[in-house]
Amino acid sequence: MPQFLLSLAFLAAVKKNIIKTLKYRDTLVYFVSGFPGGISLSFIIFLNTRYIDYPGVIKHEYGHSRQSLMLGWFYLPVVGLPSLIRSIIWNIKKLPEKNYYNKFPENWANRLGGHS
């Protein structure tokens, strides 16, 4: 899967900034200092260190991980790119965070990850 190869390249790039690593279900979660948010690529999740004590964020990204494994090659164009664009728009416009998760693909990630 291209997202797995991308995750390995990404891991190599941020390795020096990893503060904490944990296993969540069947994924590896890396907390990265200075990382702007969160991203899931295959079974590897990268999160900013501010999310260490936020299990809801881990569950949400775990949901994206499930999407990645379900969709295979289609994950990046169907979920990854729309999610990235949505995140950028939300940050630029400073929109309410709670509304971010109401629409596809974020609401699907929440359901798959068990985040209510």
Into how many domains do the coordinates divide? 1
What does the average pLDDT come to?
95
List the uncertain runs: none
Helix content: 40-55%
Strand order of the largest sheet: 1-2-4-3
Largest sheet: 4 strands, mixed
> What is the tally of beta strands?
4
Oligomer: single chain
Global shape:
globular
What order do the SSEs take from the amino end to the carboxyl end, as H and E?
HEEEEHHHH
Helix/strand class: alpha+beta
Q: What is the CA-atom radius of gyration, in angstroms?
A: 13 Å
Number of H- or I-type helical stretches: 5
* Content of β-strand: 15-25%
How far do the termini sit from each other?
29 Å
Structural description of this entry:
The protein has 116 residues and is an alpha+beta fold. The protein has one domain. 53% of the residues lie in helices and 19% in strands. The protein is built from five helices and four strands; from the N terminus they run αββββαααα. It has a four-stranded mixed β-sheet, sandwiched between helices. It starts with a helix and ends with a helix. 31% of the residues are buried.
